[in-house]
Amino acid sequence: MKSFVKILVVIALVLSSTYTQAQTRFGIKGGLNLASITLKVGGVSADTKAVAGINLGLISEFTISDNLFLQPGLLFSTKGSKYKISNLSFNTNNIEIPINLLYKLGTGSTKLFGFAGPYIGYATSGKYGTGGVSSDIKFSGNNKDMNAFDLGLNIGVGVEVRNLQISTQYGLGLAELNSDNSGSLKNKVIGISVACLFGGK
């Protein structure tokens, strides 16, 4: 985890110094999350049901070449999952930093694009429930329920019309969220978002 964070920091610093003079756009982004948390115990996966959430925040876009762009962001994202086992459910509120590389096709005001890149996240709060009773998730201390830090990969496609971007993406969590050895918990999210960018040409 620490090595991954250091890599992201280095990338951000290098890109910041390299593209200071590059064409830059800034904007807001928001949309819908369909999230689930994979649950494996003893190598057996539990049946999961996606829960609806939101993603909302700020993004910027740096021009690397005519077709290649870098798009980092700072987002608030809600995630979670439901399970058939004892009606168990999780809901978490997260701060995320995605760093996506975009490749755009097309000329004029309308373009298609694909993107991929890493993200790092931190859960600020959350709740879990079973049998109609809910409790706050503990992310710190000796008796914590889940790990707060998350990291993973995003991949997606979208369409750009002038300063408006509509995209869908799949986020695959790679970090282990479970704080003990009783099983494995990892995030999975399908997101649908709209972004409005300002500046540039």
In short:
With 201 residues, the protein is mainly beta.
Describe the structure.
- By secondary structure, the chain is mainly beta.
- It has one domain (24-199): Porin, CATH 2.40.160.
- It is 8% helix and 66% strand.
- It is built from one helix and eleven strands.
- An eight-stranded antiparallel beta barrel has the order 1-4-5-6-7-9-10-11.
- A hairpin with a 2-residue loop joins strand 7 (110-130) and strand 8.
- The radius of gyration is 18 Å and the shape is elongated.
- The mean pLDDT is 87.
Notable characteristics:
single chain, 201 residues, mainly beta, Porin, eight-stranded antiparallel β-barrel, 1 helix, 11 strands, 8% helix
**Rg from Cα:** 18 Å
CATH topology: Porin
**What is the annotated CATH architecture?**
Beta Barrel
| Main beta sheet strand tally, sense and closure | 8 strands, antiparallel, barrel
Helix content: under 10%
Q: Note the gap between the termini.
A: 38 Å
Overall 3D shape: elongated
How many separate domains make up the residues? 1
Residues in β-strands, percent:
over 45%
> Unreliable stretches, pLDDT < 50, 5 or more residues?
none
| Strand-pairing-aware structural class | mainly beta
Nearest-integer average pLDDT: 87
SSE order in H/E notation?
HEEEEEEEEEEE
CATH class: Mainly Beta
Oligomer: single chain
